[in-house]
């Protein structure tokens, strides 16, 4: 799996939320996909709900110019896509319907990674996993993964898969960044213990670590964070904490000659359990800049400086567990 994965949420913008991220044309999508593949980034992530299916359509058209076996495709289901009672969730009915529609939009007969976009507490875990196992056995899905699960959601699912000999989740797509380190509290230790890789979404903190936000200037006018829909539906970060982190990144940028987003991405790439980091781009320039996050490493001193600046008080029971690190060590 490549270190970077391209997130196609910027493709096919068809509503206010996704238009705030980008309004990439099909020609631009074709160009971006080509640049990614030329750079060795052959993994592409989307979801059925991204722009109401239009992201999958645009990605499928862009990938049609390339050999299917040379690329990896990830998509997702579970969130509502339609007004009917069965147009939501992780039931057998909805997952079968969702996968078939995703395959059609993407123009392929299989996906490499199929994610549940969220946990469905109203559907038996056994029903969901039995359905996903059937997809794997049929060859329509290569591997299964989850996104936005709590620790107990994932652990219960892994236990059920083990009990019945069904396909198990090999990855979890998680929010993780220098301004959002909650992943480290429970999901990262679980991933280390169970061998589950992390596919990191929004590694730039929901657009906060692009290098355009500074203590002196605040959020620029062109930032997607000025969209109330985007801001309200993403992670919340206290301003002072954000500026503290950005100040530390700026110091390292001067030492390394790298940009703020490159440093932020490189930090995430070096963390335990991280298999790939999902990056997006409005245009070719942004994409090429993000591709510069790989091929080099931060020094241990620089990592420590970023760790210190980005650390926040822990919730219970994690702060208490830190008092017993002799037998409950942190992930390293």
CATH architectural label? Alpha-Beta Barrel
What's the count of strands? 8
Described by strand count, sense and barrel closure, the largest sheet is:
8 strands, parallel, barrel
What is the overall silhouette? globular
Element string (H = helix, E = strand): EHHEHEHEHEHEHEHHHEHHH
Report on this model:
This protein has 13 helices and 8 strands. With 332 residues, it is α/β, with parallel strands linked by helices. The chain has one domain: NADP-dependent oxidoreductase domain (TIM Barrel). The chain has an 8-stranded parallel barrel with strand order 1-2-3-4-5-6-7-8, surrounded by 7 helices. The mean pLDDT is 94.
Secondary structure blueprint with pairings:
Elements: E1 4-7, H1 16-19, H2 26-38, E2 43-45, H3 54-63, E3 72-77, H4 92-106, E4 111-116, H5 125-138, E5 141-147, H6 151-164, E6 169-175, H7 187-194, E7 197-201, H8 228-232, H9 239-256, H10 260-269, E8 274-279, H11 284-291, H12 300-310, H13 318-321
Parallel strand pairs: 1-2, 1-8, 2-3, 3-4, 4-5, 5-6, 6-7, 7-8
Helix pairs in contact: 2-3, 2-11, 5-6, 9-12
Brief account:
The chain is of the alpha/beta class and 332 residues long. The protein contains 13 helices and eight strands.
